[in-house]
Amino acid sequence: MYKNRSVSENGLNESLADTPYQSANGLPPSTLNESSAAPKNTIRYASLFILMVQNAAQTLVMRYVRVRPGDMFVSTTAVVMSESIKCLTCLLIIFHEEGYSVLQWWSHLCQNIFRQPLDCLKISVPAVVYMLQNNLLYVAASNLEAATYQVTYQLKILTTALFSVVMLRKELSRLQWVSLLLLFVGVALVQVNSEAGKKASHDAVEQNQVIGLTAVIIACLMSGFAGVYFEKLLKNTPQSVFVRNVQLGFIGAVFGLATVAVKDGARVKEHGFFFGYDFAVWSVILLMSVGGLVVAVVVKYADNILKGFATSGSIILACVASVYFFEFRLSIEFCLGTVLVILSVFMYGKFVPVPKKPVIHT
User: Fold this and answer.
1) Are 313 and 346 in contact (CB under 8 A)?
2) 8-state DSSP, 336
3) Rounded to 10 degrees, what is the CA torsion of 50, 56, 57, 59?
4) Is a pLDDT exceeding 60 seen at residue 66?
5) 99, 142, 234, 331: which sits with the fewest CB atoms below 10 Å from its CB?
6) In angstroms, rounded to a whole number, what is the distance separating the alpha carbons of residues 310 and 145?
């Protein structure tokens, strides 16, 4: 949805630049384009910086709250709160888009959500998958070092690419396939002899690397499937990305509550829903809530190469911070694997196949 809008906006600017006429206020089109590009560039780089910090901070703080001593919060309740905050935030954004009119806001929701039961059924598929994925990320963060987790989670690029080829019939260039191979090799190197990367002291929570790695791989598969499914819905339906996130958040919260009841019902009943919550836990919840919204802004204003910078920056930040805060020990295999993952991210975004122009017969 946003990608299509940005393309149309670029097309409008190009058409204005080609015409010799002035605008209604007397300014030449080139001046208008330059003046309008400045705030867009500001938003572009600001959103990329925020995305980079958000990705790294989410990994680090999530790792911290899962291994520190003291009362441990119930992770399934945190997922419910993340989905709820995402839903409420998007409702407020739609309220702003409708000019702060309650009637128009309610009419918009009725037209795009309440009167579309079949559509809500379709969106429930990625909503449930995203909810389960977020639960698995807490399992991964509990069993993997933050740096290892951050690098390994980039496998979602590979799974997203594969699902795009299968579900969207997307074409990848040869160098993009090479980048995916480098990504796989890099992640494999990170896992080799990873025991050497662990700190000497023991964390408060018992860890199992096999469980953590399995959780990340399944989460990457879910991320790839849900992301491609969601993209397909956005391209084929008129609802905005914010309406979609309202649906995702609400449905995810409902099924998340069911997960809480099934998995942690007894513990929540004994200690309470918000047991173990503090500033750090709420920080993770907020970071997970706004992450999807930041990505939506980045998709609209930035290209794949700039997104590669943000991803690479977040990996480097997570690795450096892990060494400083978690006493993580870098091995040669880990450093080489990280370099390959960062290189693959850049290659995948750089060598996008050029769309074939339709042949016009005269």
Assistant:
1) no
2) H
3) 140
4) yes
5) 99
6) 21
Tokens of 96: 């702003």
Token pair listed for 196? 């050497």
Helix, strand or coil for residue 19?
coil
Q: Distance between CA 250 and CA 109 in Å, rounded?
A: 13
Which tokens hold the place of 186? Answer: 């890099």
Residues with Cβ within 8 Å of 187's Cβ and at least 6 positions away in sequence, in order, are: 151, 152, 154, 155, 337, 341
Residue 48, amino acid: L
Max CA-CA distance within the chain?
A: 77
> In one letter, which amino acid is 267?
R
When the pLDDT of each residue in the chain is averaged and rounded to a whole number, the result is: 81
pLDDT in tens, 265-322: 999 999 999 999 999 999 999 999 987 677 766 766 665 566 777 778 888 888 888 8
Give yes or no for residue 19 having a pLDDT over 60: no
User: What integer pLDDT is reported at residue 200 of this predicted model?
Assistant: 44
Asked if residues 16 and 29 have their Cβ atoms less than 8 Å apart, the reply is yes
- Residues composing the chain: 362
Report in angstroms the alpha-carbon separations of 9 from 5, 33, 47, 83, 301. Answer: 6, 11, 19, 31, 11
Contact (CB, 8 A) for 141 and 59: yes
Per-residue tokens: 31 = 């001046």
